[in-house]
Amino acid sequence: MAHTAPGHRIAVVAGGGMLPLLVTAALVRRGYSPVVFAIEGEADAKLCGLAPAHVIRWGEIGRFFRLAREASCREALFIGTISRRPNFNAIRPDLGGLKFIPRILQLMRGGDDSLLVGVAGLLQEQGMLVVGPLDVAPELRLPMGCLIGSGVSDAMEDIHKAARAARRIGRLDVGQAAVAVGGEVVAVEDASGTDALLARVAAMRLEGLISAAGGVLVKCMKPQQDPRLDVPTIGPVTAQHARRAGLYGVAGEAGRTLLAGRDETVEAFRRAGLFLFGLTPLEPR
To answer: Rounded to whole angstroms, how far apart are CA atoms 164 and 281?
Structure first.
């Protein structure tokens, strides 16, 4: 685990969604000095109001390193969604980034986990320590046990079966989540993400392919995953989609799952009438 100290400048490489906003605000509250590098076409413009910010395009690797050095950023943090992988064949890298392109193209031949780990290694070679959102904003960790709701004890079989399925697909670098209903795994996450997984479960119910009531979504960190990168996330939107899918609750690995706003997430699960449960990690880190 990375060890950072409040007051240090952190380069926040921000994609889309609410997580960059939440994590950047948490950094400010804890006394860090974030400098946002908002990926063009992905990051929310509101980020520019929270901290010093630069908009960067795919391929501006040299500019990123220059601006990070000028801002005295000693750490870097990746957070947020990327709606589509960059097409490096259509990108014109800046002069400082030309030397990195062959290596990044090679990394892109692997899965998402391999790409993220490779980019993190590249940054560390340039003297920047890569940290994870759970390292610098531990208040956003999913705690152990039932955080909100009831009925967890009746759903333990589904929780364990979905957790094992999520870990199996995680080993293949396919996804981080699975849904079990009535003691059977009915769907697993693919590259389209958790929201799409829950939409498929909702459609299966409408088509009569799932007859049993309830069920559970479980999100787990991939066994080979770097805990600083692409950590499983549960938030208000998860609660909304899980409710539409007819589930009774959602579970994630305690301490290894990021809450997209603790208070906001708890309130969303309360309104949806679902439980949110933090389970013991299935395997050591």
So the answer is: 11
Residue 2 has what pLDDT? 44
Query: CB within 8 A of 11, min separation 6: which ones?
Result: 34, 35, 37, 64, 68, 71, 73, 75, 76, 77, 128
Q: What is the pLDDT of residues 10-25, one digit of tens each?
A: 999 888 888 888 899 8
Which CATH number, 1.10.10.60, 1.10.10.10, 3.90.1640.10, 3.40.50.20, labels domain 9-136?
3.40.50.20
Specify the fold of 141-279: Cytidine Deaminase; domain 2 (3.40.140)
pLDDT in tens, 228-269: 878 899 999 999 999 999 999 999 999 999 999 899 999 999
Q: Which of 153, 150, 164 shows the shortest CA–CA distance to 270? A: 150
